[in-house]
Amino acid sequence: MYSVLRSATLLAVALSSLSACQRTTDVAPITVEGEWRLTVAGGGITGKMDALPPTQDHRLVLGADHHYAQYYNGQLQESNTYEVRTVKHSYDSAEDKVLFLKSTNSPDGQPYERQEIILSLTENKLELSTGGGCAINSVYERSAASGPFVCGVR
């Protein structure tokens, strides 16, 4: 009898520790919204990826209102609207999630949509690529202040 009571107590403690940090609402899907810091960039002809030096601070802020802003060392470089769409690039390819950034950063100031294929998206990392043969790739890390809450901790 003592071993059954002891086993039941241990089971109760184990189950309560598993549920101690349980969400009471549905978990929201991972989203691109937030502030992202560019940490690695490269690609092109060589394909070489390099970490950015600490003296360079590139930020991409994607708002819930579909507005974005890009900053370099604290200075606003560009802001406009963005959209994430599912795109099939050819009849026999898989569908990609693509980040479309509306831009006027062209020689004549004409608006266009810059496309970045979302290669990977997690709670803390966003990997983008321009696609194509000499793709330019970038890796962003979510800034701690804009990350999701897990058990009351950001």
UniProtKB/TrEMBL annotation:
Keywords: Signal. It comes from the Bacteria. Residues 1-22 form the signal peptide. This is Lipocalin-like domain-containing protein.
